[in-house]
Amino acid sequence: MSEKRYQVVQWATGSIGRIGIRHFVDNPAFDLAGVYVTNPEKTGKDAGELAGIPATGVLATGDIAAVLAFGADCVHYAPLHADVDVLCRILRSGANVVTPVGFVYPTKSSEADFEALRAACREGGSSFHGTGVHPGFSGDLLPLVCSRVMTRLEQIQVREVADFRLHPSKAMQQALGFGRDPVDAVENPGPLVKTMHRIFEQSMTMVVEALGKEVERFSMEYDVARAKRDLHVRSGLIPAGTVGGMRFVWTAWVDDRPLVVFRTFWKMDDDLDPDWGYGSIKYNLVLDGDPSIEMNFESAHRHPDGDEGYWGRVWTAMNGINAIPAVVDAPPGVLTHLDLPFVRPSGLVRPRSAGFGEPVGI
Fold first, then answer.
1. pLDDT tens for each residue of 281-306
2. By CB neighbour count within 10 A (0-12 exposed, 13-18 middle, 19+ buried), where does 224 fall?
3. Taking CA 98 as the corner, what is the angle to CA 164 and CA 210, rounded to the nearest 5 degrees?
4. Residue 43 in contact with residue 13, Cβ under 8 Å?
5. Neighbouring C-beta atoms of residue 302, cutoff 10 Å
6. CATH of domain 141-306
């Protein structure tokens, strides 16, 4: 039985986009129709060169009109920062969109963006789905699935530990605030920290409303750890005394108690001041209630060059990419996890191709 093939465009070729290219080329369920880039130095380069695989015959372009003219079924939209106007332009063209940059669930603070996306979907007859690994999976989809085997739920706690020392993106390092003065970083959080606050609110709201309740308020706690020495990481230098680690606690309050709690620890080294001792667990989920449930998930295999954060980037990309068939085949509109049918990944059961290679530096 042959599977339907989906024509896709990879939008942006950072650490997530390059993973997307590799998968679209290797998975027989997809055809890579085009690649959009924002860096002029990447224009005209083969998608394979950008993603560290053999040539594909698909050349990158910075021309939005040219990309939309491909008439692809779906755009995997993965820049560091989202542009709602651009997203709406894509949707109005008739292309569906799956993205790991947020927009996972409408909230009061994001209603204007969601209404713009809905209008664009209506005009283009297209669908939109925002997801990722966190938010999009570990803090919302996974708890909702696990809660199905419980009789009573008191609290959901999600802990994320992300190791960025071998992350290739200098832009990511700067946007998060690594290498900044610790006091200034806390008093004036970086743009990506503010983005994460907004989309974590969306994620927690989806969980709370799926459980039949309403969020009363949100709170956030944020502190940083200092690098004890100069840290020479893949994306650049983190000078001694500057921000080498970050800790956040996002909480959704319901009935005057913390119902959903996200604890996040991002680090550039293990030897920081203070040492919070979170270790290497990538995601930890605790559902307190009857019966209480705890689970961890992380890669079962070591990365070939020690970049354990790579697996988190794969999870970020693949939770959306594997939903592309369901999004393309769904009725037009903005689709959250609560709107999609059970997602059945296409083309995953296949031999590893000779040209796929090891994911070093991606």
1. 789 999 999 999 999 998 888 888 88
2. buried
3. 90
4. no
5. 10
6. 3.30.360
Class of domain 6-131+323-334: alpha beta
Specify burial of residue 278 (Cβ count, 10 A radius: 0-12, 13-18, 19+).
middle
Which alpha helices (DSSP H) does 191-339 contain, by range? 191-210, 309-321, 324-329
Amino acid present at 266: W
Per DSSP, 40 falls in state G
d(CA 351, CA 34): 25
Residue range 237-247, pLDDT digits in tens: 999 999 999 99
The angle, 0 to 180 degrees and rounded to 10, between the axes of the packed helices 309-321 and 15-26 is 60
Residue type, 179: G
DSSP type of residue 271: S
Does the structure show a pLDDT above 80 at 108?
A: yes
Over residues 133-153, the pLDDT tens digits come to 999 999 999 999 999 999 999
Q: Of 347, 299, 339, 341, which Cα lies nearest the Cα of 321?
A: 347
Amino acid residing at 278:
Y
Q: What residue ranges do the domains of the chain occupy?
A: 6-131+323-334, 141-306
CA atoms within 13 A on the CB side of 215: 23
Separation between Cα atoms, residue 86 and residue 278, nearest integer Å: 38
Locate 330 and state its tokens. Answer: 């769904």
Helices 84-92 & 111-124 angle (0-180, nearest 10): 20
The Cα 354–Cα 351 span in angstroms is 9
Per-residue confidence (pLDDT) for residue 355, from 0 to 100: 64
